[in-house]
Amino acid sequence: MQEQLRLIKKQAEEDLQKCLTMDQLNEVRIKYLGKKGELTQVLRGMGQLPAEERPLIGQLANEIRDSLENSLSLYSEKIKVKELEKKLRAESIDVTLPGIAPDLGRRHPLHLVLQEIKNIFIGMGFTIEEGPEIELDYYNFEALNIPKDHPARDMQDSFYITPEVLLRTHTSPVQARTMEKTRPYVPVKIIVPGKVYRRDDDATHSPMFHQVEGLVIDKNIRFSDLKGTLLNFARQMFGPEQQIRLRPSFFPFTEPSAEVDISCVMCKGAGCRVCKQTGWLEILGSGMVHPRVLEMGGYDPEEVTGFAFGMGVERITMLKYGLDDMRHLFENDVRFLRQF
C-alpha cells in the first residue's frame, strides 16, 4: 500500500509538470483527488488493512493528499500568471508609436457658399432676416400678389399641411413679414437665407433646397441699383472679370422682372457644353417690387420703390465648384465632401 501511494504521488507530480492550462490542471485534480480519483480509491480501501497498519498508511495518504493539493495550488498560480502575461502581451500598446489622428469634419460646400453669399451682401450693407419654414398660404402666396387659383401657383408644386398651411416654397414670405414689421419706415435692406420645399427630385432639383432672397425698399430705388448690386455680387462670387446679363421674365411679385445670367464660368463666355454654346449661365431671378406687394406690405408705392432677387444656393454651389448633379450635395458621401 505504501508503495502504491508513493507511485501515485510520483505520477501526479509528473502529470502536473505537463499542465499548461487550467483545464489540464483540473483534469489532474479529478484524476487523483476526485470522487473516483486514484488517491481517493486508496483511502476508501483502508478499511481492509490490518488495524496496526491503518495509522501509518492513513498518515502517509493524508501527507500525499496535502502535498498534491499544495502542488495544485502552486501550479494554478503559475498558470494564471502565465496566462495574464500572455494576455498582456497580446493587448499591449506601444506608447512610443505615433497616435492615430481622428478624422476631422469639414464644412459642407453648401455651408461654404451660403456663408460667402452672406458675407458679400453684409459687406454691401444688407442685414439678415429669417422666417418660419412652415408658412401660411397668405404669406407664401397672397401677400406676394399670387391670389388663390392664380396660374402662377402651378410653377411651385407645394407640400400642403392644411389648405392654409404649407412648407414654404421660397424665402419670399419673409419679405412680406419684414414689410409688415418695418412699415412705413425706410430703408429696408435685407437678405433671407433658408430652406425651402418643392415637389422636385432629379439631377438639378431637390425636394428640399436653399434660397437666398434679397429685398431693398427706399425712396428713388431704380432698376440700375438692382443691376449694380447683382453685378457686384457676381464679381465677388465668381471673379472680377465676371459679366451679367438680364433677360425679361415674369414673376408675380416683381414688375418689371428679369432672369439674371453670368458669363459661363467654364468657358468664360466662349461657348461650351455646360452653357449650351450660349456663353451664359442662369443664376437667379429678380425685378422691381410690384406696387401691389408694396401696398399689401403697408408701403405707399407712390412714395417708395424697391427691388428683390432670389437665388438657389445649390445652383450657385454647382456653378462655383463645377458639379453636374445636385444630389451629390445631399448624399453625405465622405469621398465627395473631402474635396472641399
Through-space gap between termini: 88 Å
Order of SSEs: HHHHHEEHEEHEEHEEEHEHH
Any idea what the CATH superfamily of the largest domain is called?
A: Bira Bifunctional Protein, Domain 2
> Mind summarizing the main beta sheet?
7 strands, mixed
State Rg: 43 Å
Q: Which fold name corresponds to the CATH topology of the largest domain?
A: BirA Bifunctional Protein, domain 2
Q: What is the number of independent domains?
A: 2
By secondary-structure content and strand pairing, the structural class works out as alpha+beta
Oligomeric status: single chain
Number of strands: 10
Low-confidence stretches: none
Indicate the proportion of strand residues. 15-25%
The CATH class designation of the largest domain is Alpha Beta
Named CATH architecture of the largest domain: 2-Layer Sandwich
Side-by-side strand order of the widest sheet? 1-5-6-10-9-8-7
List the keywords:
alpha+beta; 7-stranded mixed beta sheet; magnesium ion binding; 340 residues; 11 helices; 2 domains; BirA Bifunctional Protein, domain 2; 10 strands; transferase activity; protein biosynthesis; 3-stranded antiparallel beta sheet
